[in-house]
């Protein structure tokens, strides 16, 4: 069986998680499985979990929130979201019609997207793991105009001051919003006809970046100054991947024509080599 692996995450010193995309043949749709590998004791490796399209590990590395979709033709209308302990065991929380989990920085709550039976995004909800309580964080009808979207994801800033929401799936209706930690003061930051990838904050929470994917072209990076709402960088084209530095707001860019570094989002990119680059990651200690 052919396939490839991506989204590698080291859960602790011993356990590695990743998604393996398998193909029965060249014409079949890839099927994702969340796999694990115990690096110290291979015999203690947990069993794989099928149909996992995305997962997020809690900041304290105790839990995994994962989205499973059994029928890709109905997408998020058939999705279910579960939270499981890293060491294994039954889910401690689960819900149908839910996806795209992202953890609050304190690790005791997470945000997820809720969808109706037709696959339309309805709201973002938050869950408190201590109580198991789920509450509506922000509803699509609170945004102006109300959104029709078949894709939605939310990301917390490292400081917990802001939540960035990306929604899309309809022509001319791909958007990035910023809201406060209680769901108040929604600010529309980006509108695009093209698909927008999940946004990512810089380590200091001052900037927000996202890749816009136009049809038949490579990704283009946009960077927003969070306090002012100004788009600092309109487009950095031909981008394969990027990564924020562990502190501050430097950027490493992997492009088809080389590896680049930005000491500041508004600075001129510094080319580090001339080779095609497809992924990039900072050393966590730098």
Give a summary of the structure in a few sentences.
The protein is mainly β and 286 residues long.
Describe what you observe in this structure.
With 286 residues, this protein is mainly β. It has two domains: 51-192, 6 Propeller (Neuraminidase); 199-286. Helix content is 0%, strand content 52%. The chain has strands at 2-10, 15-23, 31-38, 49-50, 52-57, 63-69, 79-85, 93-96, 98-103, 109-115, 121-128, 134-139, 151-156, 163-168, 174-179, 187-192, 195-196, 200-201, 207-213, 219-225, 231-244, 251-255, 258-262, 270-273.
Helix content: under 10%
Annotated CATH topology of the largest domain: Neuraminidase
Largest sheet descriptor = 8 strands, antiparallel
List low-pLDDT spans. none
| Cα end-to-end separation | 39 Å
Name of the CATH first level of the largest domain: Mainly Beta
For CATH, the homologous superfamily of the largest domain is named as TolB, C-terminal domain
What Rg, in angstroms, do the CA atoms define? 19 Å
Q: How many beta-strand segments? A: 24
Total helical segments? 0
The global form is globular
Number of domains: 2
H and E order: EEEEEEEEEEEEEEEEEEEEEEEE
CATH architectural name of the largest domain: 6 Propeller
Compute the average pLDDT.
85
Question: Strand percentage, roughly?
Answer: over 45%
Structural class: mainly beta
Task: Tell me the layout of helices and strands.
Elements: E1 2-10, E2 15-23, E3 31-38, E4 49-50, E5 52-57, E6 63-69, E7 79-85, E8 93-96, E9 98-103, E10 109-115, E11 121-128, E12 134-139, E13 151-156, E14 163-168, E15 174-179, E16 187-192, E17 195-196, E18 200-201, E19 207-213, E20 219-225, E21 231-244, E22 251-255, E23 258-262, E24 270-273
Antiparallel strand pairs: 1-2, 2-3, 3-4, 5-6, 6-7, 7-8, 9-10, 10-11, 11-12, 13-14, 14-15, 15-16, 17-19, 18-19, 19-20, 20-21, 21-22, 22-23, 23-24
């Amino acid at each position: 069986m052919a396939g490839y692996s991506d989204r590698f995450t080291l859960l602790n010193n011993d356990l590695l998680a990743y998604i393996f995309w398998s193909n029965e043949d060249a014409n079949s749709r890839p099927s994702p499985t969340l796999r694990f590998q115990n690096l110290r004791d291979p015999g203690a490796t947990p069993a794989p979990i099928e149909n996992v399209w995305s997962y997020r590990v809690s900041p304290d590395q105790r839990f995994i929130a994962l989205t499973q979709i059994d029928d890709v033709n109905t997408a998020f209308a058939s999705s279910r979201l579960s939270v499981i302990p890293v060491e294994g065991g039954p889910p401690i929380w689960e819900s149908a019609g839910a996806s795209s989990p992202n953890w609050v920085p304190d690790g005791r709550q997470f945000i997820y997207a809720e969808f109706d039976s037709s696959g339309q995004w309805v709201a973002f909800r938050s869950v408190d793991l201590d109580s198991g309580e789920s509450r509506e964080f922000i509803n699509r009808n609170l945004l102006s105009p109300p959104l029709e979207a078949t894709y939605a994801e939310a990301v917390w800033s490292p400081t917990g001051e802001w939540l960035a929401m990306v929604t899309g799936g309809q022509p001319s209706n791909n958007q990035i919003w910023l809201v406060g930690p209680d769901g108040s003061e929604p600010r529309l930051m980006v509108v695009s006809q093209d698909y927008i990838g999940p946004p990512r904050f810089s380590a200091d929470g001052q900037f927000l970046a996202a890749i816009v994917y136009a049809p038949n072209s490579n990704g283009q990076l946009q960077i927003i100054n969070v306090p002012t709402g100004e788009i600092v960088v309109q487009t950095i084209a031909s981008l394969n991947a990027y990564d924020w530095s562990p502190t501050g707001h430097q950027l490493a860019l992997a492009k088809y024509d080389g590896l680049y570094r930005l000491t500041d989002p508004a600075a001129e990119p510094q080319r580090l080599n001339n080779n095609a680059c497809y992924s990039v990651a900072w050393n966590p200690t730098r």
